[in-house]
Design brief:
With about 270 residues, the chain is an alpha/beta fold. The protein has 5 helices and 11 strands; from the N terminus they run H-E-E-E-E-H-E-E-H-E-E-E-H-E-E-H. Strands 1-2-5-3 form a 4-stranded mixed sheet. It starts with a helix and ends with a helix.
């Protein structure tokens, strides 16, 4: 190969190398531009993430403040509710004419009997009847049963209540679960308690009764008689009064069981002998 051919080959090689160098440089430049764009995107995302973190932090502070406000509001509401209840009780005490305490029988979801505190309050008023039931399930007959109980108690004691209100409170312990008063079975107990309040007398706590009350003063049948009788025993009763024909359902419960047909019959046992 002569000198001319050699120079020609060198020129071709140089040209090829120049082309390769330009191509590589362009590719490197494109990669750098792409990398810069990616870095800018990452920087933008980081900035956006930091902004979102700040927003979230602000929201968390707001939520915590709201929780604190709700907690304070709940505390204020609870205190206000307690104060209102206390004021209502004080008003009742100021206007109270008479009060009696007794017990009504109920059963729970497992058919176990329980004795629930019963309170009847007579206060100055306009002849209204108020029924307050707490922590106990009851059906629609309880309200009408309470009305009949007061009506019968007025008949028996010959008491006028045109200027008086009657409050009947049946309140089980807050921890009680699934207690049920059904079928008006508290009627006879409410009647005796109302009679006691109207006459200023005290009922025997060791004599308990179950049975509905009718306007003609008769006592009607109830359910779960034995379970209620066993509850009476646990509550310290020595005598349990049941409607006619239901003594046979009781079996042996360890105390005396008597059948009563009217509220007057029941009163002979429920009130202490004078």
């Amino acid at each position: 190969m002569d000198m001319a051919d050699t120079n020609k080959l060198l020129k071709i090689i140089t040209l090829l190398l120049s082309v390769l160098l330009i191509g590589s440089s362009f590719q490197l430049y494109s990669s750098l531009e792409k990398t810069n764009l990616q870095n800018q995107t990452i920087t933008s995302l980081i900035a956006e993430t930091n902004s979102q973190k700040e927003t979230i932090s602000g929201l968390e502070i707001s939520v915590n403040n709201l929780k604190q406000n709700v907690s304070r509001t709940e505390t204020l509401l609870k205190n206000e509710t307690q104060r209102r209840a206390q004021l209502e009780e004080e008003i009742i005490n100021l206007t109270m004419v008479a009060k009696s305490n007794y017990g009504v029988l109920a059963v729970d979801e497992n058919d176990n009997g329980h004795v629930i505190p019963l309170e009847v309050i007579i206060k100055e008023g306009k002849g209204n009847l108020f029924l307050n039931v707490a922590n106990v399930l009851f059906d629609e007959t309880l309200q009408s049963s309470a009305q009949t109980a007061v009506h019968v108690a007025r008949d028996v004691t010959r008491t006028s209540l045109v200027d008086k209100d009657i409050l009947i409170n049946i309140e089980a312990p807050a921890e009680a679960q699934g207690l049920v008063i059904s079928g008006g079975s508290a009627g006879s107990a409410m009647t005796l308690a109302a009679m006691a309040a109207m006459q200023g007398k005290t009922l025997r706590k060791d004599v308990l009764i179950t049975g509905t009350i009718r306007e003609d003063h008769t006592i009607g049948r109830i359910g779960a008689a034995r379970a209620k009788g066993l509850a009476a025993v646990k509550n310290g009763a020595v005598l349990f009064l049941v409607p006619e024909t239901q003594k046979s359902e009781m079996g042996e419960i360890g105390i005396e069981v008597r059948e009563v047909s009217t509220i007057e019959d029941a009163a002979r046992y429920a009130f202490p002998s004078s």
